[in-house]
Specification:
The complex is a heterodimer of chains A (507) and B (314). Chain A contains 17 helices and 22 strands. Chain A is α+β, with helices and mostly antiparallel strands. Chain A is globular. Chain B is globular and about 85 Å long. Classes of the chains: A alpha+beta (507), B mainly alpha (314).
Amino acid sequence: MIRSGIGLILGLAMAVTACGGNSNSTSSTKIGGILVVGRTADIDLLDPHKATAFQTVQSLEQIYDTLVGFDKDLNLIPRLATKWTYSDGNQTVTLNLRTGVKFQDGTPFSSADVAATLTRILDPKTAAVARSNIALISKVETPDANTVILRLSSPNVAVVTAMADDNTAILSAKDIAAGTVDKTPNGTGPFKFLKWTPNQQLELVRNPTYWGPKPPLDGITFRVIPDESSVVSALQSGNVQLGVLSDPLAAKQAQTGGLHIDKTPQLNYHVFQLNASRPALKDLNVRLAIACAIDRKQVLDTAALGEGAVTGPITSPAYLSDPNDRPCPSRDLTKAKAYMATAGKTGGITLDAIVETGEYATAVNEMQSVQAQLKDINVTLNVEILESGAYVQRWLAANFDAAIALNGGRPDPETMYGRYFTSTGSLNKVAAYNSPKLDALFQQGRTEPDVIKRKAIYKQISEELEQNAPWVWMFTGYNYNVTTSKVHGFTPMSNGSLIFLRETSLG
Amino acid sequence: MARRLAGALLTLVGVSLLVFLVLRVIPGNQITASLGTESGVLTPEQLASLKSYYGLNQPLPLQYLDWLANVCTGNLGLSLRSGQSVSAMTGASLPVTLELALLATGFGFVLGVGLGMLSASKPNSVRDALGQGVGLLALAIPSFVIASALVSYLAAKFGYFPNALPYAPPWEDPLLNIQQLMFPALVLGFGVAAPVMRTTRSAIIEVSSLDFVRTARGKGVSPRQVAFRHILRNAMIPIVTATGIQFGYLLGGAVIVEQIFALPGIGRQVLNGILQREYAVVQSSVLIIAAAFVVVNLLVDVLYRRIDPRVRAD
């Protein structure tokens, strides 16, 4: 029996809201103008399947489309696929494609492009970033030009969410065959590639054949201004109208300049990772003692100027964990000491802890704050401050007792944590914790198409993680999108995406 | 001259080897630089494919010789990310840094020599303290502090930050170009002025005490002529050396100011290359900077001969 997926319902809901939104905006939206976006780094490549840097993804998502996408709360919405249905015990997904869509070079879009794209991602030689997320697709069938059938090696409903990732952008089969993907961007998105001047700027113009609502802007220029406080100066001078910042200090500077600042909690999370496979941390009581002894708010205040929010494991707005749903909602030294006593460690323990420097500003401060707090329960941290490359090597080898990390969040908890906390997860060695209960819960989450039921399952996973304290989740920082008074209709997103530039106008 | 050229060539080979090795000693490679901790989820096949793509599967000596052979034939390599050749990238970035370094050195030279002469005209006096004080400030305040303060002040107060516009080469828009380079050149020039000032001061004090100066004064030559024609000209060799060295440093060391003022110079090219572990970009760019440094040193030697006839005679 074929069961209708969430796609149809969400699609209808989307259509209704979109209609409402459009009637509202068309009356006041000014058409035209080039929006200049200032940010500290340049794109590093043009192949969306290999893009990992934020700025690259933020740029290529304007040019390319994905099969499905996210709304501002990271709920799934239709894009090139208008509807998706699960069948065969969630081992088959049928996607109905949008008709009348054209690539920017004029070639019509069809199921052959989807098949060629997925085959390219699945080919290990491509070294595509999203391969592991869709590796369970065993066969791609194209019964007609507007239908794609995905056969999965095991039941999984997260595979559709994985295809909302910009790293699964749909390419033209012609470009794949010609090997021009990384040279001449050609997507079905609202903006077309015009010119890239490396280290300076990337220029995009409106795609006149875009299938969706016409974007108000004539074009977007992403300008590289390597220093965040210079980005603020550029906004103040009016030469840049939207700035993408991550440094709380630069954001504070912008507050004094008559600019509008949107603070969006990030999906990425700051965490104190414990390595439960190490002798000192095998005992659950020791891990709970550490979790109870850390004042997460104080870490946030001292390391990141209070710019962020205390978090639990799941940071995606649609599945958000309650940060207080844990054995010690706030710092509790009495309880922490009791846990240490139960573990027979009142004399204290010493842990080797690693932290990286250079990659993000708050890491070392976070470690110092945690180190000072853990002294109160006789846990001594021997801290090694490592350059980013050295840190990554130690982290991947799980060669640490504890580590301060800033890990990437995902809209779907399955892709976010399945790889860490299931016994077969590709990063389970680093997470150093799994249990039959977690394996079973993740399996349920993977095969449950009902959104409400899925949320309940991931709530249980979140609780299970907090109760066993393999890591201590601390806080999420903010993405700062700073705009001048000329910018209207821009909606920031917690995954750092700038997808709503297609609805933004200058006036 | 032949010996000097051979020495220069040897220096460049040494630099190339050093950069090559240092880059490999830094933990991580292009794969971890690009994927970070996400590189942990790569399958062995993906890893092998990426290693071959980045040329990391070859033994180190072969990688070095391969690169060196290419450089000798004029092929500086390719940025695997942007697909641009390092020659093209350097062709665009080196003129920016050269212009910046020339302007900064010019400003630093004028300010440094002026302050040095002021200080040396009456050692241990108030004006000496003033000159030395300015020199000390220029040495003590990091360029990024002055640069950031300047940028923030001008933008917040006057809404002025021409560097937020795309970089304009002097042959396309000279007016915008000079606006974009004026402030970074002033900031860097302030830093250059300090060592030039100190060298000028000590050289002038030393030359002033020599017999020929006393003779000139005794003959009734005007103090102005003594100061410029007799003292300054003879004190010029250490000043030119100090300025030349500073100019050389600026060719590779203007990176922080280039970052703050968003100038697409060669310093930023190297920095981005290091961050992304783009081996070819870093190696070739550093080699070009080293070559430029060597050329500057040779030019300084040539200048000595013009300034001081005694060097010509040697």
